[in-house]
C-alpha cells in the first residue's frame, strides 16, 4: 500500500468511526459582559454582537468566529458549505501536555467545528463567490492537513466554476502536532492558487485579521491579487521576541500591525469590518466588468 493510499484509508476509517460534532446550541460567549482587548472598556455582549464585535468606545475589532464572518459576508440563504465531514487524524500519535486526539475532540466540542476552517460557496451582494474562513478559536486557527485539504478543494472548485475566491485568515501558523504534514500544506495551497490566479486569470482576495502569523502569512495569506486587512490587525511571520533574538536588535512597537504593513507596501487596503462587504462587492463589480483574457485550452 502506498503512502497516499494509507492516508486515504486512515481518513476513511476516521470518517466512519467519529461522529460529526454538532454546533453549540448556545452562544459561546460566556456571561453578559466582556472586556475590550484594546481600551479595556466593559462591553455588553448582546450589543457587541449587533455591532459586529467592534468596540463602541475605541473602534477596536475584537475576535470574531468563522460562523459570524460568514453571516457578515454572505447573503442570507445562499451559503453552501463544503467538506463538512472532513476530520483530522493523529498520524504521529503526538502528545505534549495533552494527547493530540484529545485536544482535537475538546476543540470540536467547544467550537462546534470539525477543524480550524469553514469553506463553501455563496453570494456576496448577488455575486457568486467561493469563501474560506479560518477560525482562531479552534487551536489558534492552526493549519493542519485538514485545513490545507479543505482550502485546496475550495480553490479547485472555484477554478472549475470560474468563481472569485476570498479567504479570511486568522491563524497562529502551521500546526506543530502534525509536523511536516502541516508544512506541506503551504506548498499545496500555493500551487493550486497559481493555477487559479495565473493560468486561469481568476481573482483571489486575501483578508488578514487579528492575528495572521506563521505559515499562513508565509503562503496563501500574502498571495492575494488584493490583500485587505482589518484595522490594527497583527500580521507577522515570527513574533517580535523571536525576531529581536535572531537579529539581536530591537524592533519598534507597532512594527507588525496592519497600518505599518500598509505604509511599507505589503497591503493594498485596510477596511473596517462594518463596510467590508460593500468594499468587496465593489471590487467584484469592477472585476466582472473587466475584459476576460482567459482562453480555455
From TrEMBL:
Binding site residues for Zn(2+): 36, 39, 55, 58
ZnF C4-type span: 36-58
InterPro entries: AcCoA_carboxyl_beta (IPR034733), Acetyl_CoA_COase_Trfase_b_su (IPR000438), ClpP/crotonase-like_dom_sf (IPR029045), COA_CT_N (IPR011762)
Essential cofactor(s): Zn(2+)
One example GO MF annotation: ATP binding
EC number: 2.1.3.15
Pathway: Lipid metabolism; malonyl-CoA biosynthesis; malonyl-CoA from acetyl-CoA: step 1/1
Transmembrane domains' residue ranges: none
Intracellular or extracellular location(s): Plastid, Chloroplast stroma
A Pfam family it matches: Carboxyl_trans
Predominant cellular place of this UniProt entry's protein: plastid
Reaction(s) catalysed by this chain's protein: N(6)-carboxybiotinyl-L-lysyl-[protein] + acetyl-CoA = N(6)-biotinyl-L-lysyl-[protein] + malonyl-CoA
Top-level taxon of the source organism: Eukaryota
Record's keyword terms, sorted: ATP-binding, Chloroplast, Fatty acid biosynthesis, Fatty acid metabolism, Lipid biosynthesis, Lipid metabolism, Metal-binding, Nucleotide-binding, Plastid, Transferase, Zinc, Zinc-finger
Enzyme class at the top of the EC tree: transferase
GO biological process, alphabetically ordered: fatty acid biosynthetic process; malonyl-CoA biosynthetic process
A single GO cellular-component term on record: chloroplast stroma
Family: Belongs to the AccD/PCCB family.
Function: Component of the acetyl coenzyme A carboxylase (ACC) complex. Biotin carboxylase (BC) catalyzes the carboxylation of biotin on its carrier protein (BCCP) and then the CO(2) group is transferred by the transcarboxylase to acetyl-CoA to form malonyl-CoA.
Subunit structure: Acetyl-CoA carboxylase is a heterohexamer composed of biotin carboxyl carrier protein, biotin carboxylase and 2 subunits each of ACCase subunit alpha and ACCase plastid-coded subunit beta (accD).
Name this protein carries in UniProt: Acetyl-coenzyme A carboxylase carboxyl transferase subunit beta, chloroplastic
Native organism: Zygnema circumcarinatum
Species lineage: Eukaryota, Viridiplantae, Streptophyta, Zygnematophyceae, Zygnematophycidae
